[in-house]
Amino acid sequence: MNAMVKAEVMDWTKYNIDGWLEQFGAWCETARMKGGDLPDGLHVNQIYWLIREADKTPRNSKSYIKCEISDFEADQVQELLRGIFKSDAVDYAAKYAVMCLVKHKVENRSHKAVGALTDQGETQARMMINCGRHFIHACDNRLKIG
Predict the structure, then answer these.
(1) How many CA atoms lie within 13 A of 52 on its CB side?
(2) Would you say 138 and 8 are in contact if contact means Cβ atoms under 8 Å apart?
(3) DSSP secondary structure of 64-104
(4) Can you tell me the distance from the alpha carbon of 21 to that of 98, in angstroms, rounded to the nearest whole number?
(5) Relative to the CA of 49, which of 36, 55, 70, 111 has its CA 20 to 30 Å away?
(6) Which of 86, 83, 105, 103 is closest to 23 using CA atoms?
(7) How would you classify residue 59: left for phi > 0, otherwise alpha for psi between -120 and 50, otherwise beta?
(8) What is the rounded CA–CA span in Å between residue 94 and residue 134?
């Protein structure tokens, strides 16, 4: 029996760099919240997730970003980041800048929090985050900055 396989194609124009990273962070959060290991299948995280998904009230808070990407798209973003962090051709400073961008967009941390985590000031953290954006754009010009 021949199974027809539909090859998915990534549409990088759907979001800019910040949007993809924010969506990837939201995807990671939903994947983490849906997990659990209790045998009955009802876990606190799953219940919380179901309540949050059922609540259709608009969110004004920046801390909540609704996941709107598929598992395939999340895998593509993860591969992009993994390629940068695992590459021997990428300079340490570039990896550091991308790591700051990931802390800001994927982990949803403020500039000040990124600065505190990376032992630098808020202004320096802002500059490193911006450098990370530009580095990702230079690696793959299908990803837009703004």
Answers:
(1) 16
(2) no
(3) -------HHHHHHHHHHHHHHHH-SSS-HHHHHHHHHHHHH
(4) 11
(5) 111
(6) 105
(7) beta
(8) 10
Check: CB of residue 142 under 8 Å from CB of residue 15: no
Task: Say which DSSP state 140 is in.
Answer: -
Query: Which residue type is seen at 87?
Result: S
What pLDDT score does 9 carry?
87
Decide if 85 contacts 140 (C-beta within 8 A): no
Cα separation, 88 vs 75, whole angstroms: 21
- pLDDT value, residue 54: 65
**Could you report the per-residue pLDDT of 67-85, keeping only the tens digit for each?**
899 999 999 999 999 999 9
Are 27 and 67 a contacting pair, CB within 8 Å?
Answer: yes
Residue 43 has what DSSP assignment?
Answer: -
pTM beyond 0.85, yes or no: no
Going from N- to C-terminal start, the domains of the chain cover 14-139
Secondary structure of residue 122 in the 3-state scheme: helix
Q: Alpha-carbon distance 128 to 100, whole Å?
A: 6
Digit-coded pLDDT (tens) for 40-66: 444 445 555 566 666 665 555 555 678
